[in-house]
Amino acid sequence: MSIKRIVIVGWRNVQKQFKYEPWYSIIIILGFAVALYSVITVIGMFEAERAEMRKNYFGNLLGRYVVEFLNNNGLPADLQGLTDQLKKWSNIEKIECFYEIPLDYGEIVGGLWMSPNVSEIYQVEKGRFFTFEEMNHKELVIVLSKRLLNQLPFLTEQIIGQQIQYYGTYGEIIGVIDNEKPVIYIPLKAFFEIIDLSQMLDNIQLNIWFKKGLKANQYKNLQETVAQYAGNSEFEIVSSYDKYKDSLMEMWLVGSFALLVVCGIFILATINMATISYFGIMRRRKEIGIRMAFGARKSDIIKLIIIENLFLVIGGFVLALFLYWVTFDLLNRYEFHITLSFVQILISFGIAFFGGILGGLKPAFYAVKMAPVEQIRNEEWL
Question: Transmembrane segments in this chain: where (predicted)?
Fold first, then answer.
């Protein structure tokens, strides 16, 4: 019996199952649809998280180092001098200085940008970026949450009341982060007139973007340079690659549990298929005996049963892709960042193919154990 003939006969038997035993086929399809949907979703979340971490931590060829000044009561002794000194390094592409304001004052986050041309300041939903032309250290971007704007209306009135200009528009909201945080651009000088920044700084973070990673002697030179200008502030220098590895490890620890859950769902779906296939074979023993009596080999019967199962599993695979496509935008809208790629489809199809074979092997081997005459003689139906 040729493979082509087996496929044709297998498809006819699947049609027959749909006609006479629809619930068996539907249960198998739904079981694998749930399992494969879980697989695609988990892989999509991993891919989205890994891509986000690479973008945040790697920078340019792993060349980003973070200098974090700890326990500040104000600015380091000479932050501008440190920045000017670092700009002389030929290996540096850009420098950013970012500070945070304690939450007891309000959810205000300020970015004091030291490089003359900075793009991709804040990432917002769907990969868009705020881009400012000719931004320098005399300008400031602040992020105000809606809750802060509601709780502290006087702060908003002070800022707006100063008629702070941004390319001709005062207090312009230039974007939104996380669907709730308006981003307002104002000059740094005007912000200092409103708030005494030196009394409320929590910490300062200096992001240094190198064109490539640092060697050991260059890293030591960076430490000495920062120490020279840091004043009394404590500081720590961390490579983005180290932070990336730590975050990647945390992601895999959390993801391991998700993978265990997905594996459990897949095993249940496979056991469900094997059980239903077993009962289906018990009802078709006479048919199998006739095929063997007319010359079908045991390997032909095994291939036939496995191909029948593969048709059902592929049905579950198609249903899983459809469900993922339907929920893709919805999940991303609610911060469950996922992706859809050819790799996900290929892996999930491979898992479906493996599950179809695995779920059909045991019933198929059982089907060919009985002698053809005994199978033809047996006309009992479960």
Answer: 21-46, 251-281, 301-326, 338-361
3-state SS class at 139: strand
Q: Write the pLDDT tens digit of every residue in 40-61.
A: 888 887 777 777 666 655 544 4
154 vs 149: CA distance, rounded Å: 9
- What digits encode the pLDDT tens for the residues 293-342? 777 777 777 777 788 788 888 888 888 888 888 877 776 666 566 777 78
Residue type, 105: Y
The DSSP-derived string for 155-223 is: HHHHHHHTT-EETTEET-EEEEETTTEEEEEEEHHHHHHHS-GGGT--EEEEEEEESSPPPHHHHHHHH
At 70, the amino acid letter reads L
Q: Is 309 left (phi over 0), alpha (psi -120 to 50) or beta?
A: alpha
Domain ranges across the chain: 3-54+247-377, 72-232
The Cα–Cα gap between 206 and 95 comes to: 7
Could you give the CA distance from residue 7 to residue 15 in angstroms, rounded to a whole number? 12
The DSSP secondary-structure symbol of 230 reads -
List, for residues 111-144, the tens digit of each pLDDT value: 433 333 333 333 322 222 333 333 333 344 455 4
Structure tokens at 321: 């892709």
| Residues 139 and 121: beta-carbon distance below 8 Å | no
Q: Say how far residue 242 (Cα) sits from the centre of its chain.
A: 20
User: In terms of residues, how long is the chain?
Assistant: 382
Q: How far is Cα 377 from Cα 260, in angstroms, rounded to an integer?
A: 46
Fill in the DSSP letter of residue 107. S
